[in-house]
Structure formats: C-alpha cells, structure tokens
Fold each of these.
Amino acid sequence: MITGKNYIGDQQSANGQTTYTTFNPQLNIENSHVFTEATVDEINEATRLASEAFKTFRSISGEKKAHFLNAIADEILALDDELITTYCSETGLPEGRAKGERGRTVGQLRTFAELVGEGSWVEATIDTAEPERQPMPKSDIRKLMVPLGPVVVFGASNFPLAYSTAGGDTAAALAAGCPVIVKSHPMHAGTGELVASAIIRAADKTGMPNGVFSNLNSRGIEVGTQLVKHPKVKAVGFTGSIKGGRALYDLAAQREEPIPIFAEMGSINPVVILPKAIKNRGEALAKTYASSITLGTGQFCTKPGLLLGIESDALSHFVTTLSEEIVNIEPSCMLHPNIVGAYETNKAKAIAQTDLTVGVDYNSEVQPNYAKQTITIVKGSTFIENPTLHQEVFGPYSIVVQCEGANQLEQVISKLEGQLTGTVIADDTEAANYAEVISALQNRVGRIIYNGVPTGVEVCPSMVHGGPYPASTDSRFTAVGIHSIKRWVRPFSYQDWPNELLPSELKNENPLEITRTLNGKFTNQKI
Amino acid sequence: MITGKNYIGDQQSANGQTTYTTFNPQLNIENSHVFTEATVDEINEATRLASEAFKTFRSISGEKKAHFLNAIADEILALDDELITTYCSETGLPEGRAKGERGRTVGQLRTFAELVGEGSWVEATIDTAEPERQPMPKSDIRKLMVPLGPVVVFGASNFPLAYSTAGGDTAAALAAGCPVIVKSHPMHAGTGELVASAIIRAADKTGMPNGVFSNLNSRGIEVGTQLVKHPKVKAVGFTGSIKGGRALYDLAAQREEPIPIFAEMGSINPVVILPKAIKNRGEALAKTYASSITLGTGQFCTKPGLLLGIESDALSHFVTTLSEEIVNIEPSCMLHPNIVGAYETNKAKAIAQTDLTVGVDYNSEVQPNYAKQTITIVKGSTFIENPTLHQEVFGPYSIVVQCEGANQLEQVISKLEGQLTGTVIADDTEAANYAEVISALQNRVGRIIYNGVPTGVEVCPSMVHGGPYPASTDSRFTAVGIHSIKRWVRPFSYQDWPNELLPSELKNENPLEITRTLNGKFTNQKI
C-alpha cells in the first residue's frame, strides 16, 4: 500500500511540509497519492541509522547477505499486480516492459546473492610469512575487499525498477556490505515506495540491522544535496543527466572528506557504418536502426543517437530508407511531460543549427506526452565544428553524419566526448581496413559492438556499462554486472593478524572454501 | 651526466628562464647543478608526445612492456655510483638507504615486468554467445582492462627513487600501457634527471614510441598545476602532503573532463597498546617504538605518530622508558632545510596546545638540518577536543594519548581522520576483549598490524598502502604492490567482435595462455 511517507530505516515518517504527486503520462493526469518530501531531521536520522547499521552489517556473513538479497527479490515479486500497475501509471511504459524490468531487477538481486553467498568476490590475497628472509624477515599479510560505508543511491527516471530503489546500484552496495539510502525519484515515487517496503520487509525477515535501508522522498534538489554533503555518507551512485550527475560529482569532490561517486550520465552512442556494409545491407540496417532508435521511445541510455558514414549514394539511400522506416513506427509515450518537453526543446535546438537537414520529423498529431521521432543529416565538417550537435537528445532522435572519407570519420570520433558504447557495422574483412577509425572509437567508449545495436545491455560479468567522462564520472568502474560491486569496496590488509581474529575469508583453514590468491597462485586450498 | 635540462620525450630541452639548485643538507650547502624549469611550450610538447605515444603504446604486447620495464631497471643499476652519490647529496640520507631504495625500485620494475609479461592481470572475462536463448539471444561479450592514457606522476620528497621518477606510480602506469610525464621533485632534481635518462635509454633500446616518458623540472607549483589541468592528461599520481595532494585533487575534479587522481598523503598511524601488553612488555615496546619513530629521521609516511593506551602505572612507565630510549638515539639529518623548518614549526604548534606535557625534547645542540626527536603526552579527553593534535608532524615526533578506559579509546579512534595504518599491541587473547576498539580502528585505516610496527611497507600483492581520506584521495586503490596498476586502467568490453580483431588476451585460442574467467569459471583453456 502506498502511503506517501519516507522510510527512515524501518519507520515510516512524513514530518515535512512539501508534498507532491506523480503523473500518468498515458492518461495525462496526476496520480492520486501524495508524497511528503523528507526533512533535514529525517535525513539526519536516516544517515545516523545507516552509520549505526554499518557497524554490524559490514561484517555479517556472505550467506546472511545472500538471504537478505534473495528475500528482497521475493518480496518484490510478492508485490505482484500493485507494483506493475503503479509502475505503468507513473511512467507511461507498457506492462510488458514493467514485467521485463522487474525480471531484470530480481535477476540482479539473485546474481549478487549468489556472488556474496559463494564469497570469492572479496579477492582474498594472502602472502605468508618468511621469518628467515634476509636482510629482513617477511610478515604475513592478507588482503580482502571491505565495504566503504553508507551509500546514497539516486534512481534513474528511465529505469524505475532496474536502476532505482532496488536496482543495480542498491543491489551491489548491499552485497558489498554498505547500508543504502535511496533518494527516491519523484517521477515514480509510488513504485519507489512499494519497492522500499519490500526491502524493509526483507531486512526484517532476515534479521538485518535497522538502518540498512532508507527511502527518502524528494521533489527538488535539496534532499539529494544534503545527502551527498552529509559526513556519514561514504559513497554515491547516480544514473541520469550530465547536468545532474556533474552537480553531484562537484558536491562530492568539494566535501571536507571527498567521497567516491559513480554517475552514469549521457551518451550519444556513435555507430560507424562502413561503406561495403551500407552498400550491401543498407535497407536491412535502416530497419534495424529505426527500431533501435525508437525502442522504449528512445529513452535508453544506449540509444544510437549518432550514425556515422562516408558520403556515397548508398549512404543517401540508407538515410531515405531510415526516414521512411522510422516514420512508419507508431509514436509512443514518454515518461513524463517534463521529459517530452525537454525532448522537443533539445531537438528544436539541434534542428536550429545551421547546415543541418531534417531527414524526417514525424508530423502527424500525436497524443499528449507522445514523442515524434526525428532524423537529421549533417556533413562531417559541420559536425566537427559545432559541439551543440554532439549533445544527447534524450528521446527518439538520431543524427546521421556524412563524412568525406575515413580521415574525417576518425576526426569526428576523436572530437567526441566519452561514450557508453560505440558500434561498428562492417562487411566481412572490411573492419581491418579501418584500424585507425576503430582505434579512435575504442578510445572514446566503454563497450564496442560489432554488427549489432547498442540498445540491450546484457547483465553479465563481461559487461561494461560506463566509459570515459561524461558517459560516467569514473571510467574505471561499470554500473552493470557483478563487477559493479567494486565501486563500493576498498582493499584492506591484515599484517601478522592472529588466525582466530581474521575474517573467515582469510583464515588458514579457508572455511568458506573460496578461491584465493595464495603466494601468487589461485587456489581454494587451506594453508 | 646531469645537465639540468628537461626531457621532452627523448629530447633534452631548457628553454625556460627560471632556474634552481638542489641542497645538500648534510654539508648545509647548495649543490652545483642548475636546473631549468619547464616552460608552457615544453609542457604542451610533452603532453602532445605522450598523447601520440599512447596511440601505439596502449596496445603493444605485454612481452614488449616487460622488456621496457626490465631495461629501465638495468639502466638504473648501470647509473651505479653517480646515482648513489647524487641521491645522498640531495637528501642527506645515508648510502645504505640509497642502495636499499634502489633495490626496491628495481624490484618494483621487475615485478611489474613479470606481471605484464605473464598477462593475466588484464582480468580477461568472457561470456560466450547463446544464440538460442529465449526470449532474446545472448551476445558474445569479452572484457579486459585497458590503459587510461597519459599519467602525470608527482614524486615524493622522502622516496627519491622508489616513489619518484621510476617509482611505484611510474612503474604501474607504464606496465598498464600509459605514457608517463614526471613532474620532477625539486629537492632531488639531479637524482630525478639521472633516473629519467635511464628510462629514456631503456625506451630507445626497446623500441618504445617517443613520448612514452618525459621528465619536467619545476621549483614552484606552476608546472604541476598546468599538467593536471592539461586536457591530454588522463590521470595523476601524487605522494606528499595533504595540502599539496588536496590542491591537485581539486584541480583534477574541477576540470571540464574530471580525471582520476590517486594522492597518498598524510597519516599519523595510530598504535593501540593494550593494558596487558604494556604491563608485560612495556620496556621492550618502548625500545621498539623509539626506533620506529626515529627510523629515517621520522620521514616515513608510516611513522607511528600516535600511541594510544589506557591510563595505568605501566603506561606511565612506558612513557618514561620511551623518552629515555628515544633521547639516547643519535639525531639524524632531514631531507632539506625546509623540511626541518616545517618539523620544528609543526612540533612547536603541537607543543603549544594546552594540557599537553612534553615527555622528552632532545635538548642538546645538533648539526644544521638535524632533527631533535620529541615525545609529548596528553589525556584522551584533551586529544578528542583538539583536532590540532591529530595533525601529522612529519619527522621524529610522536604523541602518547592516555585514555580513561576502552570506551574513550574507541572514541579517540572514531574521531581520527583516515589513516594508512593502525597497529594493535596485545598479549595472548587480550585483543578479543577489545573487539569494538579494533573494529573502530579497522574502519579508519588501510592496513592493520598486530604486535609489530607500521614502518616497513612490504611490496607484495596483499599489501594495501592507502586508506580513507586523507591517507589517500581514494581508498579503493593501493599505491604499493601489483594491484596499484588498477589506478591506471579501465574495463573495456567487446560485443560480438570478430576473433581475428580481438586483442590476444581475448582470442578464442588464448595464445598467451593466460588465466581468464570463461562463463564464470577461472581457466587458461582455449574456447
């Protein structure tokens, strides 16, 4: 049941005066639940509880954390229709998407449960003593990963389940042993509260300390600002715009004690279509890309927003076909009136640039909050000179850049800011002839795709969802997959520590039977 | 031969007007060589060359990088007496220390050569395709670590070899595939130039691209500031003071494209001496700690600057013995007149605080630039209330804090800022009775030591040299050991990439025979 209150640990609380509602973009009406923004006192209490909870949560067993994470997954599934209905009413997204995203969210939680239940993720590294070594005896040193402390998570507007309240950042932080305080996204506050209630029930059922999770409502920037500046907060996860992510990055960096922040932000996901491929498969590619650009109303962070080719009749034909294909796709609803508004504004700003041609701009009337898909075309030289054209337009929009040749293609890529993904479309052995273009692309992205589309982010250990700034604020980490846990942990060494006082992961007898690096060799043996 | 010039790639250059000399603190005279600070043009050229070199250096084989790193080690050893003499003349440190540090430096280079020569360090992670998977086929995704780009290294005053020109930061960055630009430390510019010449010779002999290494002289902050702000620079390593490290951290964070910086800064390295231990072994401990506090004239970042105990006759006796032992140690030379000056100023500031007792202040006359060792004593309540007493005094100074009981001991620890190390001195099963004290200490440090001293940082995979701010600017990394390479690399994914275009580390046939994670299992098998 949605109450509109905050969760300050396991207590519901709504002491504030600022209230707000969510919006149903399909019906174009406000939803009925009223949410109360967290107060400064509630923020302080949530961080105090998180800090207290950390004292025990940071060293509970992987087995217990696994129970907790699996229980969260179970409790989310138990929310059943209420969650799906609320999700759809707050996002305009269809039921199939809601269920798919729930599946992904539950899958992520269970994957992290498996990871910490097994235990080898702590990267246990042991160098045993050499008391006889000359000129100095060598100590026994043993290292493992330990959690940083309370983590604040800012959910994404476009992933109300998989990258919000119990999404990837939260799952990874709890798995690491970090209490989590979620700054609830105002556009899906009801979905957020329901998921928060599932986490609180799971924490209660599995005996987690109170404060291991809190969920704070907020409409504006104040709650988030106070959280990032709070001395008891030790790390921040964010998914959203460059403007929002950079503002939080700056706050985190300006603290007396700077803290790590991982912000996954903007990307236009360049796609390089090489000449032979466009000649031989132009029509099929146009169809594939019309679909990828409009998938989820263009609201994926991996939407291909930049298609790069070399001038040719085949490229011109591709643009024509892409325009025809995309205009035949039925427009769909965006997440919120503000998001449609921003889409139209940013698109208009792009279109207003000089020397840019509009390939197609869906020109029939659409329902309120529905997005009109658009393709524009520009020359390579124009694109290079105009950084405005490099900016992400969040929604079903993409720009085709016609380059004079391979050199200009490489120049265009080198001028780009960091990106989540890059894609190369090539025929047979064609890619080998564009080594410098591909090398330049690799240097700008976190993931490179061959003959595919960037949309669709597989949750698996080999996935990188991140990349050079501004794709993320720290390219050394990924937001997706089990290695995303590395954002919330630090290495810690014990020197000559008594075996009975060591954590299980480092004890001589290796009671958890985990894989460790013992004197330079991977092994699950005892010492 | 020392020329006083910069290395801009493999060219020596001295176009600037600002010159300076180094100082011999033992003889209390200026050394004769004159060094010329790098100009803005020279800085721009060094970064341009580094950026160009990165295009090839980032993908050369591990085998070639290993040759390069081993050649640097060989060339450093070939510098022979000239290096040792110059080192001693610029630091006041004895020949034995110079040779020991050279051994460590060479050892670090060879360890990284071994690491990248073997190749498994890239954490290759492969998830093969499942074309038949429902509801969506699964792509083939393969991940490995790739270098960030040109790295700027600021050497440490107190480690002219092991943490300077070819020290840990440089060795790790070159091993990762990042070109390095060293901002030479002005106090040992001659040592720096000699080592730079060794690196340049090694790069030439092993066919590395020009620009893979540059060495820039600088006396003030301008060269370093320009380097950290330079768009072509992609990461920064620093070892030094909190003030210097924080200033660089702020510059790196304020860039249009923020870049990672790892600064290893200050630490007072708290030592908790539990009651039974101090009762049974007080005199031996006093002797051990008098030696650790004065080791290298107290100029190690792991010097024990804070000794914590619970009030008792045994603690009082320990303080008396410590004072007697330390005053009997012959004073030694500090690195530079400025460093001695800062030591005396900071020590005087500490001593001037109210309710503080001076245990012993070496009061005989000493040679110029020699430090007078000092012990002070304070109550726990006074220490908690006065943050000035928590600050590092770089040199042979330590403060003993007498706490009322275990609770106050825990309070003192919880009030401390982040530290490189914490030490627990305990008898038999005593430590188990102080679980909360030890837990609080673990939460503040990067490495915890049992019944030892914090000085002496073993270079091995399990070592953490780092810790919560301000011990470092990012506790998620270590500055020592093979894992320090992680500071300079990012994960990168290939999706459905053709086998022939993949880097060797990810190819089906596993030509390097490295250990990889293949569909969740560690293996060195082919696919």
Amino acid sequence: MGDDAVEQVARRARRAQRALRAAPGEARTAVLRRLEALLVEREAALLAANREDVAAAERDGLAAPLLRRLALTPAKLATLRDGLRQLAAWPDPVGQTVLRRELDQGLVLRQVKSPIGVLLVVFESRPDAVVQIGALALRAGDAVLLKGGAEARASNQALVACLRDALAREGLDPDAVGAVEDREAFGRLLALDREVDLVIPRGSSQLVRHVQASTRIPVLGHAEGICHLYLDRAADPAIAARLAVDGKCDAPSACNATETLLVHRDFLPHLPAVGAALQARGVELRADPQALPHLPGAVAAGEGDGDTEYGDLVLAVFTVADLEAALRFVADHGSGHTDAIVTDDAEAAARFLAEVDSASVFHNASTRFADGYRYGLGAEVGISTGRIHARGPVGVEGLLTTRWLLEGAGQVAADYGPGKRAFTHRDLPT
Amino acid sequence: MGDDAVEQVARRARRAQRALRAAPGEARTAVLRRLEALLVEREAALLAANREDVAAAERDGLAAPLLRRLALTPAKLATLRDGLRQLAAWPDPVGQTVLRRELDQGLVLRQVKSPIGVLLVVFESRPDAVVQIGALALRAGDAVLLKGGAEARASNQALVACLRDALAREGLDPDAVGAVEDREAFGRLLALDREVDLVIPRGSSQLVRHVQASTRIPVLGHAEGICHLYLDRAADPAIAARLAVDGKCDAPSACNATETLLVHRDFLPHLPAVGAALQARGVELRADPQALPHLPGAVAAGEGDGDTEYGDLVLAVFTVADLEAALRFVADHGSGHTDAIVTDDAEAAARFLAEVDSASVFHNASTRFADGYRYGLGAEVGISTGRIHARGPVGVEGLLTTRWLLEGAGQVAADYGPGKRAFTHRDLPT
C-alpha cells in the first residue's frame, strides 16, 4: 500500500467517524446486532478462512500457544456473540451527561461523553480481537483502523468484512472500520497525527515499546505486567497457596499473571507448603537466600529475577522484613499493573491498598482478576499501565472523551468579575 | 544544573510524592491553608521580589501586555488567596470512590481517584501560575516541578519558597514542589520518562509544540485556540454583535478569544451592524468576497486568514451557505478548542452542539466562557485540546487518575467461567 493509499484509508475513517458520531445511538446499536447476526450467517466461511491461517501457521512451525490463540472455534464465536449482545443491550454512552452546572441564571454547562475519534489498533495472533475491539469502538462512536498479524490474515479479512458489512447494511459508512495489512502501512499511519487520535497496541511488551517510540500520537497500553503477590506475616497459609497457584498457573502468559512472590520473613515457616503447591503444578521457583532454605527444589534467584515478566511457569520468591519493605519492593520493581496482598490483618491490607500505586491493587484475591470481563466492563481493549486517561482494564469508557456544552441567552464574559455579576456555580442533577 | 543534579530533583520529587499521597487528606488541606497564611505574612517581600523582575523587564523592553502579566499586585495576591481558600474547602479528592461493584459474594471492586504522580509544568511570564498550579497539584496529591520564565525569576523563587515552606511546616516533604530555572535542566527533565508522569506546558503554541516534539512523556495542553463564532440565519442580531465584541475584545490574546466569524449568507444583511460594533472597538476585519460588501472599512481576507490565532484585535469573517457548511468549516479550520453558534433556531443549536467536535461548544454564549474559573473548577492548570484524559479547562480532576481496588476472601480466577461460578457484577452505591 503506497503512502497516498494509507492516507486515504485514514481520511476516509475520519469522514466516516463524523457520520458515525452524528448518527443516533440506535443506529450504532443496530450495527452491533447486525454484526452478531452476520457471525451466525457466516460461521462456516469464517471457520474455513481460519483453517487456512492455522494450516499455514502449522507449516511455518508456529508455537503451540500461538496456534491456540490463532484458532477460531464455534465456542469462541459464541463468546464473541455473547459480548456483542451485552454491548448492544447497554445504553448508548455517546452524549451521556457527566456533570450539569448552572453558571448563572439561564447559563447552563453540561459535560457530556463523546467519541475520541479515529483509533489505530495493532494486535497479534488472536483474530477474535477484530470483533471485540471493533465492537467496543463502534459502541463508543469511534472509527477504528486495524492492523492484525500476518499469520491471521484470512481470518482478519473475513471478520473485518463482517464489521464493514454490518455498518453498510445499517446505512452507515463502512469506512468507519478499516484494515491495513503490511508493516509499512502501519508505520505510515503512526506518523499521521492529524488523522489518528489514539494508538492501542495489543501484544508483546516489545510491540508496545516499539509503538511508543515510533509515534507522537497518544498510546494506550501496557509495556509489562510484573505483578506481585505479597504474603504478609498475617497471611492465611491456605489462601496464600491458592492465590499463588492461581496467579502463576491459571494463564502463565497473561499480563496479570503473578511473577514475584514477596514473603514476610515471619511467614517463612509456612512457605514450604506454598512452594510445594506451586511445584506440584510444575512451577520453577527462583528464591533469594532467605527463602531458599524453605523451598526444597528451588534454585537461587539470579540476575533479572524479581524484575522479569516470565510469562511462563517460573516464579521469583523474595523475602522482606516488613510491610514497609514490601511496599518499597513493589514500587521499585513493579510495573504498576496489578499487585496483591494476602493478609488477615485489616490494617496491613488498608495500607497496602492505599499506598501501592498500581492500576489494580488487591487484598486476598488473585492477580488474575485484573481483566475487563471480570471487572464487568463487558469486554476490554487492553490493560493500561499509563497514568493518564484510562488505567487498568479498558472497556468502552476508555474509548470515550468528554465535551463541554454551554447554553445561554446571549451572555458575555465581560459582564462577570469583581464588582460585576457573580457566577452561581450550582450543580444540577444530571 | 548538571544532569545528575536534575535527576536528583526529579527523584526527590518522586519520593516526596509517595509520602504526600500516603498522608491523610487533612494534611494536604493544612498545606493549602498554611500557604494562604504565608502569602499574607510575606506579601511585602513577594511584591519586592516582583518589583525587581518588573524593573529588569522594563530595562529589557518587555512588551506592555507581558509586563502586565508579570506584575504581581496586592489584588492578584488576594485572588490567589481566594482560590486557595476555595481549594482547601473542597473535599479531598484522593481516594474518592468513582465506582463500586460486587463481582461475586465477598468480592468487591472499587475504582478510586488517585494522584497522577510527578508533574512537570512549564509556564511563561505569570508568576501567579506558581501558586495556582502548585496548589492544584498538592490538592490532587501530585508532586510538581516548575519551570518558569527567566523574566519572573525572583518572583517565582519567592513563591516556590512559600509552597515548600508550607509543606515543611505541615510535616510534609518540601521536595514535592521543585523548581528548575534553566532551559537545559528543563530539556533534561523532558527525557526522564520514568521520573515524570505528565508535562503541562502553559504558554504560546510554539512552546506547546516544542514540548510535544521533545518528549515521550504525555503532554497536556493546547497548541492553538482558533475559536469560531457562527452567526446562523436565525441569529438574534443584538446577541450576535454582543458575542462577537466580547469574543474578540474582552481579552484578544487569550486562547478562548474568537478568531473567525462565520456568517450564514441569510444573515449578511445584519452584518454591517455587527461589523460596526467591532470596528468601534478597534477591530480590523478581514472578510471573504461575499461578506466584504457588507463590511465598510474591512479588508479582503488573504492567505492564512481563517486559519490563524491572531491573539490581537483582528477578526476573519467568512460566509457559509448553510449550517452544514458551517459545521464543515469548523471541522476543517478549527483547533478543537471552543466554538459557538448564535441562533434562535433550537434545532440548529442542537445540531451544532451535537456535531461540533471541540472541547467546548456553546449556544448563545461568548467563546470567552471556556475557562476553569468560569466553569466552576476553582482554578485551572490550562485548557486541553487533546482528545484523551482531560479535555477543555483542566482543574484538579485533570491531575488525578484512578486505581482499581479489589477486596476478597481468597477467591481465584480459575473458579469462574463457563460451567463454573458466574460473576454477579452488581453495582453498589458509592
């Protein structure tokens, strides 16, 4: 795709977004319902396109976990349709009033939710992301440009066609969903900061960092998930073992998996049982000198342990002298994604929740709960460890901004100020 | 200041911020009250420091509007103290609950407001910005590094000392407020994306663009304010004239000043009266060929008119065939700051408010109302035309992020899913 063609795709998305946001909310809802119907109608064709991708990936020797992500199944399609039904059932967020305030008699301010504009989303392997992210974007009134992985090309094309056809059949401009396939086109889009409002990379931390370094457009995403589970001196040993096993083993490659176990030194006598439960699930433990004697079969932690997102059945184990030291460890070694404390001491829990400055902070719950679906956001476009805009699991709210609407009767600013009219600044019900 | 010294300032701010956010809300409130008291105690010294700056600036031939911004007066100090009293009277925002949701029995999620972290603020001329921005940052639990203009050096130093002393006297770490004075130190801070979380440039659009191009840290600000006032076919001629005069003349150098008058062709017969009112206030009109015959004394619009933030008593006048064309003009030539319609046609007003995608959109009110103080935000750190995070006038809310807190009783993610436990996802009162 030449530079001009790429710019055209972005410009058409901008134009289509203007129409999409101006359309009534029912039109966007109808698109979501139509998309759900198309996923039923075209199920056989979608699965066939996906089989092509999977067969090619097998020939290319793609690793088993990636093959599992790549494969579409009737069950995965059913889950996508569930998500679409949920999104369609929600009230349309565009135009919802956040704040209403009388500035003076007959001068009323409203802050309302509004689409961000044109999103550029880059993702790897999982073709279901096309539907999840595309649907969230349309619910928010945003246009979206999608760049999927080459290994999912046929699947992505078939799913993008569903999105575009759903728009067209409901009388909306299909260019609100666009696709770019090659890396050069994607690189070109990263330079178009007047045409693209937000970039969302979904994939490895290398991908996220590459995108952040390559664009002046705001980027929503997380570079790393180095999540801690802190076993306090007052931790319940059974809960400690359950949460460690779930955090590490439920989905080791997920960004919300636990990577480092922090252990209060008074808890060390209970550590062998926790370690055994982890080892029974095949976890390799890399422990600091204080923890090592309590973990038969563990190896000594070396360079990088405690600062690594393993994404695998490997867990670092570090000992701390007290809660204060645990807080400092998390601040110094964490990635601000998700950190949890296990304790029966309400005061220690309260302090951990108040002071750990991560997107998600848990007490007696597995780090694996940090997820848009589990939080009840319907779906997620990703998990943000950025500190502005959306933070943590990002659902439709993260794809919205606000505008300020002021309705008056000819008022001018020069009439207000010291010795002149005063503002009433009275909040009104929304 | 050497590179190491600059990094030390940033690291100390990070450490001080951890203590500031962990402190109870009353401590931050006490700092604001203490600051107010210090501004009274030290008024003579502050004014003397400022006289030094003003005298030097006069010798250097600083332009009159800049001298006015530079000068501190007892009235300006009184206004600052009013603002501090207001901020201190507000409930502490840190930890406020935004959302509360039961995920399952005994598993409750809360989204709470939280400080962003370390802010870097660069501003020109106005020393009062030190107190306004510093106080908003402290209210939000953020540390702030301030880079003021060289012309206000003595004033800024004296005011920064007030902020630091207020922190110290309330037992908090004064390094939560830091100052850098030279450009090299500021440039170095822009590179420290692990130590600084948000950059806020307050000044000319050149400054904002320079900052945006020089850092990977998120930037909150507006590059330009090209605000439109659209006189619809159903505009009340008296309101049209009042709003045009206020929008252009109340503060021509402000970013919310009206720069372009859009005129529905059916309104052209009323344009002479609007033009005369503007010319009576010394405004130079630059009109397109359709409007020109209706504006005796106007000049023909040339290159750049209609796309320029004049910041002066100059106004572009362009004619449009209908509302649709006005919407397109604003989309193509506006900067997304503030745009207003004058009309008695409720339908036209509703469409303008719904479809103009600017941070502030007004009906029958002057563009000059786009301001944090007028919106009732207490004060503002600036006006953002960015599309993520805060948009429009930014008060304390724009200096906050959120965190997700989950409290459970040992739940694990593996227990939930198809055929297993289901989430309840029941919203609870906040």
